[in-house]
Batch of 4 targets.
Target 1
Amino acid sequence: MNVVTERQDQASAVLLRAIEPVTGVEGRTQGPSLLCKAMDIDRRLNAHDLVSDDFYLAAPPKAEPLVIVKRPRVGVDYAGRWARPRLRFYIKGNPFVSRP
């Protein structure tokens, strides 16, 4: 699932590869395909506003301190100079992080 973070015609997005379900999500969510399947995400949600009432992203009610790991992205050897920078971020030790 890609989340676009800027206005139209401004290239900027985040690929969500996995989530830690809080409530209402059945199935595995470690990896883009499993995440979309568990949350019933498909092309019907293209251009959906993620601050809407029916499908949205929200901060947890109580934020706990986290250690964020930065690594190169996975499976993007074709991306030239963008293949090696540490642009993959995840919570250290979180069991819901997709592998490798």
Target 2
Amino acid sequence: MNIPKITILLDHGYHPEHLRQELEKGYPQIMRKIKFELSTKPSTQEKAATRKSGFVPAIARWVVERSNAWMERCKILVKNHERTLANATTKLNLCFVKLMIKRLAAS
């Protein structure tokens, strides 16, 4: 497979070791190209500097969460009956293109 090396950010609710073991069972050739990292938590000093307390979201995680929420608005992605990864990826790309066109038309 010709895929680039990628890094997947996980929040602290995931266990990268367990995830890696399970993925290596089914996709050993892909796992040489994937690296997992836990996203950083803001320290107490960082929270104090921004005058926030309690839960403070990690910046990188919320980019992913927001993107997932936008994708859920695409009706074409509600059910995935695609037979190939290329077709599924194309549907995702079309969803984001549709979103970009809507944002550009609104401005």
Target 3
Amino acid sequence: MFDLDRFIEDCRAAVPEDPSYKAAHEVVARANANPGAILAELGEPTRAGVTALYKSDTLTILNVAGVSG
């Protein structure tokens, strides 16, 4: 199950942990392992676009959506 608030907190914790962003990459990779759960949380995209899910001075999380067909 993907929880957006938990994902944001995990990313926020990972960024200062490793300046190479490897820890943050691992958080994103874990989330992307279950794309259906992400769609269930964020909803099926109806159009292509980029939406900011979180933004601070040290971290920006974007939802990049493409629509096929």
Target 4
Amino acid sequence: MDTELETLRLALAPEATDEARASGAATCRAILATLDPSAQTPPPQRPAIDASQIAALVGALRGVPPDQLLDLAISKLRSALPVDASSTAPKGISFHIVPVAPARGGR
């Protein structure tokens, strides 16, 4: 246990190298695994992405007008919001014009 504590002490030092910090992180994981066996469960694996599926999707979207793609993206984002969420109507673009005095003494 003294070795693990020394590893953590070195990893937490302000001047610790990347290797010392990585070693400290590994030590923390080992301690956590010892204290909490449920932490040993591996994270769920993401499904493999098939490049041909991506190519088919891009090919299908290639002919869609940009306005229609934006409408689709907006509706998808809105459907992800909670039911009771509200939104305000967007304001138009407004520009503030700042008057600038003409330069004096210019050539």
